[in-house]
Amino acid sequence: MNGALMRASSRFAIAAALGLVVGVGSVRAADLGGNCCADLEERIAELEATTARKGNRKMSLTITGQVHRDIIWYDDGKSSTTYYGLDSTNSSSRFIFNGSAKVTPKVSMGFEIMIEIEAGGTSSKVSQFDEDGKVGGQISGSAAPANSFNAGNVDPYFGDARRVAWWMEHADLGRITVGRWETAGVLGTIDLTGHIFLPASSSFSLLNGGFFLRGSTGQYYAITWANILDPAANNPARTEGVRYDSPSWHGFIYSASINEAGDYWGTMLRYANEFSGFRVAGTVGYENIRDRSTPATIDPTAAFWTGIAPDITATGFALSAMHVPTGLFLQGHWNHVDYNTPNHVTSGYWNDGGGATQKDSYQWLIQGGISKNWFGYGNTTLYAEYGQATDWGASEAGRNFVGTTSTTTCPGPNATCSAAIANFIGVNGVVGTDVSVWGLGIVQKFDAAATDLYVGYRHFDPEITCNTANCGSAATGATNGHLPVQGIDVIAGGARVQF
Fold this sequence. Notes:
This protein is mainly beta. The chain is 8% helix and 42% strand. The protein has helices at residues 3-23, 40-50, 225-228, 303-306; strands at 62-75, 80-87, 94-102, 107-117, 159-170, 174-182, 212-214, 220-224, 238-245, 252-259, 264-275, 278-289, 312-323, 328-338, 361-372, 380-390, 399-401, 427-446, 451-466, 482-483, 488-498. The strands form two sheets. Strands 1-3-4-5-6-9-10-11-12-13-14-15-16-18-19-21 form a 16-stranded antiparallel β-barrel. Strands 7-8 form a two-stranded antiparallel sheet. The longest helix has 21 residues, at 3-23. It is globular, with a radius of gyration of 26 Å.
């Protein structure tokens, strides 16, 4: 064997070995043997047999993702608890398969499949009564509900289809995406640091949404924090549809989508650029939703199908700026939702509960701080934030939150849900909800490990008003239509590891 062939064969063997280490990771270097050339062909065959490979050589395949887990402490004003190892709904654990192929020099095609964690302990699902964060099911009642994950060897499922779509792109004309994807429309804050959303998402309901509100004497109201906060739709929503994204033109990108059965559409314009030491990003968007939320029982003669269809419009804008040399940044957004049609059938979008006229809802957030690589490991970000969520749980006629076991009503945004509660204090005639949110935290990036380590604090302070003096019951402790409600404190510490 000549020297050139020897070197080529050795390089091939090394490359195959590296592929094995990355793709499988279970074979030690010593397993390759001391004399790599004696049985080179046999060893290469073994490596090829154990190396992870994609299905064809036309379409590329890349596997990426992240693991994001938290330790979260809650204080609901009357009691406190710590949950260990939760998955953070601010940016869930996930893995991603994507690929692309060139059709012509200007035309590409590709796909993406993103699977995120859905079951098990997640920050938006746990409550004072449920440390497992199970999907649906009971939240009170027997000591071990049938669908609890309490048993240590009971494994919750991981997979939820966050994205499943194919796309086609022309360098001069833009990209068409078909499948399950983010809708074009209203967005929240654009995070220029790239990581403070881990403890401080632009949505307010992703850390504590499952917790119940407490009264001044410790009573539990039949209202969760998710009922009076934004529904995380500004992330944005994901559903089946067709979306168009234009090429970037001087930093501007225009997007539009049509979804479901054509009864949900949106459009947005985004901008991102850097000049004179400043990095700037912004967006403005609009959505219109007429989709009905499919009921548990299908009956074509029911009022659900013959009643007034929803007609929801959402508008919003966001603007972010960073001074790159110093790392100082300021960013925020404002969103508004108009439910328009009185007594419409529920849609479920943007926290819509249907029924009597739901009040227009607002949410805004401002975040600021500094993000700088002071220690050489990666950027350290210090931030503070303040925002408000207004009237997400209110209606002009007064919204009711029941407090007894029922198969047709529950404290969720819709008329029916799978959770049953008993002996919670019902609150009736809610005509106003306002939640102020402030927080601060620190995030440290470790570039060498593609890891962000953080701790963040948020305080939520609610105000709830009713159209009756006692909010439907003397047990609420309400006077003059003002419901006494405790705030909640949340400290989240954890890490996101990307791969």
